[in-house]
Design goal:
It holds the Pfam family DUF6702. Keywords: Signal. It contains five helices and twelve strands. With 181 residues, it is α+β, with helices and mostly antiparallel strands.
Length: 181
């Protein structure tokens, strides 16, 4: 009996409105969510700061992806969002990024200084300095962070030197990119 009742109500339910969304719109949203694909992209910004004599770089990575790669590297479960863990794992994070980032300025390989990081929503923001005594004419970068975990990983770096904006893009098949100013 209850099946007959539901069968009789079906025409009314299909025309029903759910809040401000009708049934067809809700079905469309469900189908879109099922086919969504995760993207693997880090975005960094780099600029020259004459006061400190360094290129200053901020990089953003999704915390869960970074936790996965650091956990594999440390052979323990790393949770960066727990209180005090950014400080506790500062050396591990720094070692990882100094091994994954190589910067040449005007042909010279420059060691990077990992200053620290902070959490911003679901991302980890990293602060890096590359000490140089003048604005560069050419920058070459190899940035392979997370590429060992995700073959589709892209590391994009926006540069601003002498008021000019340029972008580097490192991917698995092209891990080194360079620009001239």
């Amino acid at each position: 009996m209850k099946y007959i009742f539901l069968f009789l109500l079906m025409p009314f339910l299909s025309q029903a409105s759910y809040g401000n969304h009708d049934a067809d719109e809700l079905r469309f949203r469900e189908s879109v969510n099922i086919t969504a694909h995760k993207y693997y992209l880090s975005v960094s910004n780099l600029k020259y700061n004459a006061k400190v004599g360094a290129l200053q770089m901020t990089s953003r990575f999704f915390i869960d992806d970074l936790e996965d790669v650091l956990s594999a590297r440390a052979d323990e479960n790393i949770i960066l969002t727990e209180d005090g863990n950014l400080t506790k794992h500062k050396q591990l994070i720094g070692d990882y990024f100094t091994s994954r980032l190589r910067v040449k300025v005007d042909g010279d390989l420059i060691p990077i200084d990992y200053l620290g990081s902070e959490i911003d929503n679901d991302q980890l923001v990293l602060y890096i300095e590359i000490p140089v005594d003048r604005e560069p004419l050419e920058i070459e970068m190899r940035f392979t962070a997370l590429m060992e975990l995700f073959e589709d990983q892209k590391n994009m770096v926006h540069l601003k030197i002498r008021g000019e904006r340029k972008t580097l893009l490192m991917v698995a098949k092209k891990k080194i990119d360079s620009v001239k100013f």
